[in-house]
Amino acid sequence: MSNYKRVYLPNHSYFFTVVTANRNDIFAENKNVDLLKSAFRYVQLRKHFNIDAICILPDHLHCIWTMQNDCNHSVRWQMIKTFFTREYRKQNPEQKHRSIWQPGYWEHAIRDLEDWQRHIDYLHYNPVKHGLVESVNDWYYSSFDKYYKQGYYEKNWGNSEPVTVSGLSCE
Questions:
Q1: Whole-angstrom Cα distance, residue 118 to residue 72?
Q2: pTM, full prediction
Q3: Which of 8, 42, 141, 152 is labelled catalytic?
Q4: CATH domain 13-165 topology
Q5: How many Cβ atoms are within 10 Å of 148's Cβ, its own excluded?
Q6: What is the phi/psi pair of residue 45, to 5°?
Q7: DSSP structure string for 80-126
Q8: Domains of the chain: which residue ranges?
Q9: Catalytic (active site) residue 122
Q10: Per-residue pLDDT tens over the stretch 102-146
Q11: Digit-coded pLDDT (tens) for 70-110
């Protein structure tokens, strides 16, 4: 039994890693990514939070949220996972008894602007790190394009490992 204590800070940003059960490639199918997006929208309408950055990979996802006054991210993740699981099982009745998610999730309270930038870079570089694409630009389920259009990145950023993510492991 773990004695892990989560940090809940109002008006704060967090980096999250959420993993599927047994690292199953559930999000390799577009319809499941769409279902996950629906789960996020469903929860955001009920419990506000801002998704600053996101990257959805076949078997896990990374995102950065900024919380407002109600900073209970655990409730939000529980709602997202529950919504996704319920709808996924409706669409895939043969998966009725299959675990969808690893229990819990990993969170990191962002300390400062440098830490935020490092984690933004980490999640955007993740598809290249895992050998899914050669260029960050080629990964569709990521907020990279949004940041590129805002001038945060150059088009060929992340074709090789950025210095900012060297030694950072958030899996």
A1: 24
A2: 0.93
A3: 141
A4: Alpha-Beta Plaits (3.30.70)
A5: 16
A6: -70, -25
A7: HHHHHHHHHHHH-GGGTTS--B-SS-EEEE--SHHHHHHHHHHHHHH
A8: 13-165
A9: no
A10: 999 999 999 999 999 999 999 999 999 999 999 999 999 999 999
A11: 889 999 999 999 999 999 999 998 888 889 999 999 999 99
Residues 6 or more apart whose Cβ sits within 8 Å of residue 113: none
d(CA 21, CA 79): 17
Q: Rounded distance, CA 12 to CA 125, Å?
A: 23
Lookup: tokens for 154: 């150059």
Question: How far apart (Å, rounded) are the C-alpha atoms in residues 95 and 88?
Answer: 8
CA distances from 131 to 1, 68, 69, 77, 138 (A): 34, 35, 38, 27, 12
| Lookup: tokens for 96 | 């009725």
E-strand stretches of the chain:
13-19, 50-56, 60-66, 106-109
Residue 61 has a CB neighbour count (10 Å cut-off) of 22
* Phi, psi of 54, deg, nearest 5: -155, 150
Report the Cα 21 to chain-centroid distance in Å. Answer: 15
The structure tokens 């394009």 sit at 145
Nearest 5 degrees, angle CA 110-CA 7-CA 57? Answer: 60
